[in-house]
C-alpha cells in the first residue's frame, strides 16, 4: 500500500536535500564562479557571489599558457588509449570466464582483484627503473600501459558481471545452429554486450583521467597530463585564484558530464558486482 | 555443455589478461624484494647486493615508520567514519519523496568526478587559505580569529578534502542498497508503532550491512594509497606523512632505494592483511 505523502512533508524533504546537495556541490560551483572573475575580484573581501563583471579572460590566459593544450591532449590520449587497450585484453577474458566457467574461474577473478590491491608504492621504483631502462620515461605509451594494467582488474570484473547477465541459452542455440566460436562472438554476443562494454569504457576513461599517482610521478613535461598540469599550480604564484579556477574547470568539465551519465555503472564497476 | 574444444579456447582467451597482470605483479614486486635486501643508494654510487634484513630493521624501528602508520590509520579511519555516517544519512535523505531528486543526486555525486589534484588545490587555496580562503571570511563573520587550516590542523584538512571526494561514492552505493529495501516491512513496523530510530536500528541498518562492508573494503584499498592530495597540499609535512608517502619520499626524494623498497614490502604486506581480512567479510556477506 502506498502511503499518502503530504505536500508539506515533501517540501520539507526537498528543502533539506537541496541544502545538502548544494553544500556538496558548492566547491565546484565556487570554482566555476571564480573562473569568470578577475584576479582582484576573486579574492575580494567580502567575497563576491554573482554580481561581478563576468570575464572569460582567464580561460584565454590558461589556453595561452603554452603547455595547457598539450596536457589536455596527453590526458585524452592516455585515458582513451589505456581504456581501449584494456578492453581489447579484457573482453575475451571476461567472455571466457562468463560463458565457459571452469573450476578455477572464481579464483582467477579474485586473484585479479587482488592485484588491484597491490599498493602502488610497492612497485614504484622498479617501474621507474624499467621505464628508464626501456627509454620510455615521460612518454604517453608508458602511461597508457601502466594505467591499462592498474585498471584491467576493474575492466575484467565489470565486463564479467555484464556478460553473466546474457542468457547462456542464446549461445547454446547459436552453437546448435552451427555457429563457430568466431561468429558466436561476432553476431550473437557482441550486439548484446555493447551496452555493457560502453559503460565499462565510460567508467574507465573517468578513472584513468583522474589517476594521480602514476601520472604525476612518471611524467615531467612531454607526457604530463592535466593532473600534473594542475599540480604545477601548487607552487605559489601570487594572485592566481581565477586562473587556477579556469584551469580546474577545463580539467574537470568533460569528466563531470561523462560521470553524470555513468552513475549507475559506477556502482557496478567499483563494487565488483557485490552491490547491484 | 562446454566442450573440451571451447575449454581450451577459453583458456587461450583468458591467457593474455592473466599474463600481463602476472608480469605486472611479479617482475616489479620481485625487484622491490631484491632491492629491499640491498644497500642501494644510486646518488652516492652505493650498491651492495645483500645486507640481510638491515633495511627492514631500520625501517620498522624508525620513528617515522610508526608515526606514518598512525597517520595512515587516522586518515583512513577518519575518512571512513565521515563517509559511512554521512553516506547512510545522505542515502536515506535522497530516498525520501522530493522535487528534483535527479538533480540533487547529480549535485551530490559530482565531487567524485573531480580530479584529485584539482580538488586538493581548490580546497587548499579557495577554502583553507588563511588570507583569502572562504573559511577565513566565514570565521571573521562569526567573530573568530582566522585559522590556518593546513598548518594548524593539516591532517584534518586532508581528511576533509578526501572525505568530500569519497562521500558521493558511499552515498551512491548505499542509496542503491536503500532502494532495494522492502518498503512493506518498514510500513508494517511503522504501523506497529516502532519509532523511527528503532526502524533504523533493526531494519535499515542490518539491510545495509553488506553495502557498508563493501564500501569499507573498496574505500580502504583506494584510501591506503592517497597520494595527490598530500602531494599538493602539505607535501607530507606537519604529520601528514602516510606510509605511502613515506615510501615515496624514501625511494624518489632521498633515493635510498634499499630502505624505501623495504618500506614498500611492508606496505604490500599490510595492504594484503587488510585485503584478506576484508575480502573474507565480503565473501561471507556474498554467501548469505
From TrEMBL, chain A:
The residues forming a coiled coil are none
Q: Which cellular components does GO assign to this protein? A: plasma membrane
User: Principal place where this protein is found?
Assistant: membrane
Read off the PROSITE patterns from this record: ABC_TM1
A GO BP entry is: transmembrane transport
Homology family: Belongs to the binding-protein-dependent transport system permease family.
Indicate what this protein is called per its UniProt record: Sorbitol ABC transporter membrane protein /mannitol ABC transporter membrane protein
* Phylogenetic classification of the source organism: Bacteria, Pseudomonadati, Pseudomonadota, Alphaproteobacteria, Rhodobacterales
Automatic annotation (TrEMBL), chain B:
Specify where it is mainly localized: membrane
Membrane-spanning residues: 12-37, 73-94, 106-123, 155-178, 211-237, 257-279
| Keywords of this entry | Cell membrane, Membrane, Transmembrane, Transmembrane helix, Transport
Q: Where does the source fall among the domains of life?
A: Bacteria
Family of the protein in this entry: Belongs to the binding-protein-dependent transport system permease family.
* Family matches, as PROSITE patterns: ABC_TM1
Biological process, per Gene Ontology: transmembrane transport
Topology term for the membrane: Multi-pass membrane protein
- Supply the SUPFAM superfamilies for this chain: MetI-like
What Gene3D superfamilies does the record point to? MetI-like
Question: Any idea where the ABC transmembrane type-1 domain is?
Answer: 69-278
Q: Which organism is it from?
A: Jannaschia pohangensis
Name recorded for this polypeptide:
Sorbitol ABC transporter membrane protein /mannitol ABC transporter membrane protein
Tell me yes or no: is Transcription among this UniProt entry's keywords.
no
What InterPro entries is this protein classified in? Answer: MetI-like, MetI-like_sf
Q: Name one GO cellular component term.
A: plasma membrane
Amino acid at each position: 500500500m502506498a502511503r499518502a505523502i503530504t505536500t508539506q512533508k515533501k517540501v520539507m524533504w526537498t528543502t533539506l536535500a537541496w541544502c545538502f546537495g548544494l553544500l556538496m556541490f558548492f566547491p565546484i560551483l565556487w570554482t566555476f564562479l571564480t573562473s569568470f572573475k578577475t584576479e582582484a575580484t576573486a579574492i575580494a573581501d567580502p567575497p563576491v557571489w554573482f554580481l561581478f563583471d563576468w570575464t572569460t579572460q582567464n580561460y584565454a590566459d590558461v589556453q595561452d599558457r603554452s603547455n595547457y593544450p598539450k596536457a589536455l591532449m596527453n590526458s585524452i590520449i592516455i585515458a582513451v588509449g589505456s581504456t581501449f587497450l584494456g578492453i581489447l585484453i579484457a573482453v575475451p577474458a571476461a567472455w571466457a570466464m562468463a560463458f565457459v566457467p571452469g573450476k578455477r574461474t572464481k579464483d582467477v577473478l579474485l586473484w585479479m582483484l587482488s592485484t588491484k590491491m597491490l599498493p602502488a608504492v610497492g612497485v614504484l621504483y622498479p617501474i621507474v627503473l624499467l621505464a628508464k631502462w626501456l627509454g620510455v620515461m615521460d612518454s604517453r605509451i608508458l602511461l597508457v600501459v601502466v594505467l591499462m594494467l592498474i585498471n584491467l582488474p576493474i575492466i575484467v570484473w565489470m565486463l564479467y558481471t555484464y556478460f553473466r547477465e546474457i542468457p547462456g541459452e542464446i549461445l547454446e542455440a547459436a552453437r546448435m545452429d552451427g555457429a563457430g566460436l568466431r561468429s558466436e562472438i561476432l553476431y550473437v554476443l557482441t550486439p548484446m554486450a555493447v551496452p555493457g562494454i560502453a559503460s565499462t569504457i565510460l567508467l574507465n576513461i573517468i578513472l584513468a583521467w583522474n589517476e594521480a599517482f602514476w601520472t604525476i610521478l612518471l611524467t615531467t613535461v612531454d607526457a604530463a597530463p592535466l593532473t600534473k598540469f594542475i599540480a604545477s599550480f601548487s607552487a605559489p604564484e601570487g594572485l592566481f585564484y581565477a586562473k587556477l579556477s579556469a584551469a580546474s574547470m577545463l580539467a574537470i568539465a568533460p569528466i563531470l558530464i561523462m560521470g553524470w551519465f555513468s552513475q549507475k555503472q559506477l556502482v557496478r564497476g567499483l563494487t565488483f558486482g557485490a552491490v547491484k | 555443455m562446454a566442450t573440451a574444444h571451447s575449454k581450451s579456447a577459453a583458456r587461450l582467451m583468458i591467457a593474455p589478461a592473466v599474463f600481463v597482470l602476472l608480469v605486472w605483479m611479479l617482475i616489479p614486486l620481485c625487484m622491490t624484494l631484491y632491492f629491499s635486501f640491498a644497500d642501494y643508494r644510486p646518488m652516492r654510487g652505493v650498491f651492495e647486493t645483500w645486507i640481510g634484513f638491515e633495511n627492514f630493521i631500520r625501517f620498522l624501528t624508525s620513528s617515522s615508520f610508526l608515526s606514518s602508520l598512525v597517520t595512515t590509520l587516522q586518515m583512513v579511519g577518519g575518512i571512513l567514519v565521515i563517509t559511512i555516517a554521512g553516506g547512510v544519512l545522505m542515502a536515506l535523505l535522497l530516498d525520501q519523496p522530493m522535487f528534483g531528486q535527479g538533480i540533487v543526486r547529480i549535485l551530490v555525486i559530482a565531487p567524485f568526478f573531480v580530479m584529485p589534484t584539482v580538488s586538493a588545490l581548490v580546497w587548499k587555496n579557495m577554502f583553507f587559505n588563511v588570507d583569502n580562503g572562504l573559511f577565513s571570511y566565514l570565521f571573521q563573520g562569526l567573530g573568530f580569529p582566522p585559522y590556518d587550516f593546513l598548518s594548524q590542523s593539516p591532517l584534518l584538512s586532508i581528511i576533509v578534502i578526501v572525505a568530500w571526494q569519497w562521500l558521493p561514492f558511499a552515498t551512491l552505493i548505499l542509496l542503491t542498497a536503500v532502494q532495494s529495501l522492502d518498503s512493506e516491512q518498514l510500513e508494517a513496523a511503522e504501523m506497529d508503532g516502532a519509532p523511527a530510530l528503532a526502524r533504523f536500528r533493526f531494519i535499515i541498518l542490518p539491510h545495509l550491512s553488506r553495502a557498508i562492508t563493501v564500501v569499507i573494503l573498496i574505500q580502504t584499498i583506494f584510501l591506503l594509497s592517497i597520494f595527490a592530495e598530500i602531494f599538493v597540499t602539505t607535501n607530507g609535512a606537519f604529520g601528514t606523512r602516510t606510509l605511502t608517502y613515506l615510501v615515496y619520499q624514501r625511494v624518489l626524494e632521498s633515493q635510498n632505494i634499499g630502505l624505501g623498497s623495504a618500506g614498500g614490502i611492508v606496505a604490500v604486506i599490510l595492504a594484503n592483511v587488510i585485503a584478506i581480512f576484508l575480502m573474507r567479510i565480503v565473501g561471507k556477506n556474498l554467501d548469505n
